[in-house]
Write a structure and sequence with these properties.
CATH superfamily: Tetracycline Repressor, domain 2
Helix content: 55-70%
Structural class: mainly alpha
CATH topology: Tetracycline Repressor, domain 2
Largest sheet: none
Low-confidence stretches: 161-166
Distance between the termini: 43 Å
Number of strands: 0
Mean pLDDT: 90
Number of domains: 1
Radius of gyration: 17 Å
Shape: globular
CATH architecture: Orthogonal Bundle
CATH class: Mainly Alpha
Number of helices: 9
Order of helices and strands: HHHHHHHHH
Strand content: under 5%
């Protein structure tokens, strides 16, 4: 495993039990056995590391899907695999929280499934934030499965309110 991937796996492992705000670079270094200089060669800080892990282990693994439902199914399945880490990182109070990266990723991808108009970007951001907040809530629960979560998220955005034009 390459150094970058090893550090990414380390941050996911550490955030399974701890909020990312309570994980420190010194912990990452001691757990991984990587020196400080090497860490900073690849990442600015722990949030940059976690965002990089999101990209590598979740976002880049989602295939181009023909439908919104298929996209959400792939996305939720991958998120479910790292659910504890995501909940502990998306609940961060830091302004660099990985939650923002997730919202931007979702907004960009949701936009592919709706016709273009002037308010599309703002609407997709709003939908992405709503989906992320709902996902965090449900991933925190032990009484949820991938299919139920996917169907719930899909129901929130597949039929926009009649007064909302996408």
């Amino acid at each position: 495993m390459k150094v970058k991937e090893y550090l990414q796996q380390t941050i996911f492992n550490l955030t399974e039990a701890n909020n990312i705000d309570h994980v420190f670079v010194t912990q990452i270094l001691s757990t991984s056995g990587i020196c400080k200089k090497t860490f900073y060669k690849y990442f600015i800080d722990k949030y940059d590391l976690f965002n990089s892990a999101l990209e590598s282990f979740i976002f880049s693994k989602i295939p181009e899907e023909k439908s919104l439902k298929a996209f959400l199914d792939s996305y939720v399945s991958l998120c479910f695999k790292y659910r504890k880490s995501l909940v502990n990182s998306f609940n961060s109070v830091d302004h660099n929280s990985p939650k923002k990266k997730n919202i931007n990723f979702l907004a960009e991808n949701l936009g592919k499934y709706y016709p273009s108009n002037e308010t599309k970007k703002e609407m997709m951001q709003a939908y992405a934030e709503m989906l992320t907040n709902q996902m965090i809530k449900f991933l925190s629960s032990d009484n949820i499965n991938c299919e139920t979560l996917t169907n719930f998220l899909y129901s929130l955005i597949s039929k926009p309110h009649s007064n909302t034009e996408l």
